[in-house]
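Summary for the funding panel

The consortium committed to producing paired sequence-structure records for every protein in the target list. Below we show the first two records in order, beginning with the earlier of the two.
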Amino acid sequence: MEQYVVKGGVPLRGEVSIGGAKNAALGILAAAIMTDETVTIENVPNVRDTRVLLQAIEGIGAKVKYIYNNTVQINGGSISDLNVEYEYIRKIRASYYLLGALLGKYKESNVALPGGCNIGSRPIDQHLKGFKALGAKVNIDHGVVSAKAENLVGGHIYFDVVTVGATINLMMASCMAEGETILENAAKEPHIVDVANFLNAMGANIKGAGTDVIRIKGVNRLHGCTYSIIPDQIEAGTFMMAAAATRGDIVIKDVIPKHLESITAKLLEMGCKLVEGDDWIRVIAEGEVGSTNVKTLPYPGFPTDMQPQIAVALALAKGSSMVTESIFENRFKYVDELNRMGAKIKVEGNTAYIEGVEKFTSAQLSAPDLRAGAALVIAALAADGISQIDDIEYIQRGYEDFEGKLSALGAIIAKVDSERELQKFKLKIG
């Protein structure tokens, strides 16, 4: 099994370039099958989640061609199967976007119920309620969601909770429905806007993405286009927290600073220095880092996907902090691992009470999910000694060449898959 081995205690310094947004890519790749023409998508992050989704898309008969590492061409004209198998879904939750895409295009889709990171319950009731409002009959049988309609007709859909997945799925399902669809209490995340912009580039008529009311006028068909995915705000935020935790100085390039405002606000409260350009941010954390309180909220609030990373930085800050998780109930599974490294964190309900410590010590760690895994790598980078992190396939779901980018910033990190490689690393670093 592959693992990361990290020798900590080195402040990260230098420049890092951010890849395309994983969460936007998953919606956009699914939406690309909605035309019979060829779609070229640039800045696709080469991570496990996007690769699995592309395999699922090939599995139903679409043609997928990698032009080079981060550009993909998709042609949905040859789709022959409207059934997405469990094999793909259990690896990656976002395969459920194929429900909305296939339903929108063919008025039918059959997709196995999703898996993904175990960070709490993520029901798909709002997706199904939306499909029904457009006129689809929805059944769940033997673990498969089937949606079918004679005709999709625009409707007025009010989401009971703010949901990114259902907002994206309903934008896709309704963009070729008859008449107008209104989505109220819609999610406002940057990747919602990106998926809407992509669909519009294919000829859809979507207005209001990025606000809580999205209006979609149905069109007869969608066409091919070339589109570039936005930068990944969570990858950028992860490197920003790595600078804070290791007392480093990192320039994070190829970002949209506006998307990072909730993260930069917290780093400023913690006493970090920030310098901002049009498409870059520099985080300087040399000296003392202070405490703050954080509550995760839907965008533009502080992202739940950044909660474990900021908790690591706060566990090494001076003073007491509180981190409240209001999105997912199972998101503190990394806390036990941090406490084994010397952190002082107590979880009560959905709040972590953090007492900052001066340093962590190394440990054998296990990544419980994608973002917590990245947070444990940051903790290992800040710790004294050599740490090993298992179950890194979670981390590889959402970060492209994580160890390579960290190494370029001066981190002493390697990916190893045998005891021999591990000993070689230890010998090399002395």
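The next record, for a separate protein in the list, is shown here:
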Amino acid sequence: MKVMDGGVTAAKGFQAAGIYAGIKKDKKDMAMIYSEVPCAAAGTFTTNIVKAAPVKWDMDVVYNYQNAQAVIANSGVANACTGEEGMAYCKDTADTAAELLHIDPKAVLVASTGVIGKQLPMVPLKEGIRKMVPLLSGSKEAGTLAAESIMTTDTVKKEIAVAIEIGGKTVTIGGMCKGSGMIHPNMCTMLSFVTTDAAISKEMLQKALSADIKDTYNMVSVDGDTSTNDTVLLLANGMAGNPLITEENEDYKLFLEALNYVNTCLAKKIAGDGEGATALFEVRVIGAWSKEQAVTLSKSIITSSLTKAAIFGHDANWGRILCAMGYSGADFDPEKVDLFFESAAGRLQIIENGVALDYSEEEATKILSEQEVTAIADIKMGKETATAWGCDLTFDYVKINADYRS
């Protein structure tokens, strides 16, 4: 696998654009992704009962139509809790893009992120679509502009691309995402768009995506709030020319491995860019007797506000981690738990068999002062593992969310 410098335009036949359309104040706020040929489309969506109109539109396209060819995304307004008007906005957006791109409106996917409850300003949005179509390009720069144009409270763009060989052909997978707050397992306030030139059936594409989000986007938490707009879309246009993947063979395994790398990288970028965050906090639970047990424990630790605050303070307050494991609902023996902290500054065991060791607080603080910090909990019950990602909880998180709408 070769990691590339790029994003959604890295794969053959994909173009993108990103602009300022006037939905937000003086920031790029609209993006477009377009494939030169129709794509097999897969998607996963928020588990929140309150679903934004774009989520409902995309679910219909992904589940009931064979192909998609374009994505229109805006930031600034979520088009959530907007009633019948919200669905009409989606149709109007798709109709406008379809007319300009000469494709079927049901081949257009739409996505929105931003403030809930506000009506989508259709005049600048439709004008934005008209501006973007002539700007579509397969360049790396165009992909980056698109990645920047879906940001809300994100502080950095998030994109990644990889290349692998399948059936003697080079297959590329590229992606971009946004997400910084209202982030919680079972997807988050995130939009993720992944493109590939792999030839793969719609059924296998959906199977691959549905399997992979369990260990990637669903293992991220920033603040415990599950959004109304979470969407992951995966488009495959087949232009790599590899033998069509229609079953779980070796080619499928290679594709799934590369997809996992892309989604893991994007998920970690979301966690590390949590609102106000100063550190990416990774939790690995090892020695579990089942995958479910490991997932439950790792998620409980990563969502503990007290633990996240301790990470911000570079404080090796291991009691908070053991406490979070204890109320997770997963059964384990706390008197067998070993706990380690690890970062670029080193690795240190904090407790053994549930009891504190005579460790150096100074060394622990040094390890916890890095920008990426890992806690490893070994519960010594089996061979299963799980990894979750989050961030520290800072003063700035409250500041950002106290005046988000202004």
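Regarding this second record: The chain has a mean pLDDT of 92. The two ends are 44 Å apart (CA to CA).
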